[in-house]
Amino acid sequence: MIAFEGLTKTYVMGDEVISALGGVSLSIARGEHVAIVGPSGSGKSTLMNVLGGLDRPTGGIYRFEDEPVADFDDDQLADFRNRRIGFIFQSFQLLPRLTAVQNVELPMIYAGIAPAARKARAVELLQRVGLGNRLNNRPTQMSGGQQQRVAIARALANGPDLLLADEPTGALDTATGQEVLALFDELNAQGLTLCIVTHDNEVAARARRRIAFRDGHIVSDDGSL
Question: How far is residue 188's CA from residue 33's CA, in Å, rounded to a whole number?
């Protein structure tokens, strides 16, 4: 489903050129459950940002099935993110003034889905993640684990091909984190491709494939197909 060939990403900071990705080549098949691991500054978050279309590579090839993502302009990237990628972040990134249903509806508004249809899907997704009794609660009225479940429902709103999660349990206690990881396992078992960026070995151990980064390079790839 995903292919990187010689992918590079550099940043210019003053007089210094920093290489975040140094010619990365890898492929991810549909239905895989992948953990991307490595210390801070290893390039794993940069890879996730490029993978999700949040950032552009400096060089190399990135193809998502038949789409040449590395060549997209800004409008094409925005459309790609909305159609094909679901994002989950450590800080949840929910809008505090909106209810759970309204937060989940947001990606569908940008996709042009009619109000009645998007509300029905938002309710269905919140029920799916165990929040059928929290539909009209705002983020401040929910626990961290409940907020993360809203974020997962929102990430699923447009039926993405790939779910990207950046340290998804970092702000949660151990028990709640395990519940969220179990939900990820369930989604993957249903066929959703899942890629988790983490420095937590226990989180990485849940994945069937672990790709380790250091200094912008892949240093190991355990369980690749």
Answer: 7
How far apart are the C-alpha atoms of 183 and 167, rounded to whole Å? 15
**Domain range for 161:** 2-222
The size of the chain, in residues, is 225
Instruction: Count other C-beta atoms under 10 Å from residue 7's C-beta.
Output: 24
The string of DSSP letters for 147-211 reads HHHHHHHHHTTT--SEEEEESTTTTS-HHHHHHHHHHHHHHHHTT-EEEEEES-HHHHHTSSEEE
User: Residue 225's pLDDT is what?
Assistant: 47
Total structural domains in the chain?
A: 1
pTM, rounded to two decimals: 0.90
CATH code of the domain containing 217: 3.40.50.300
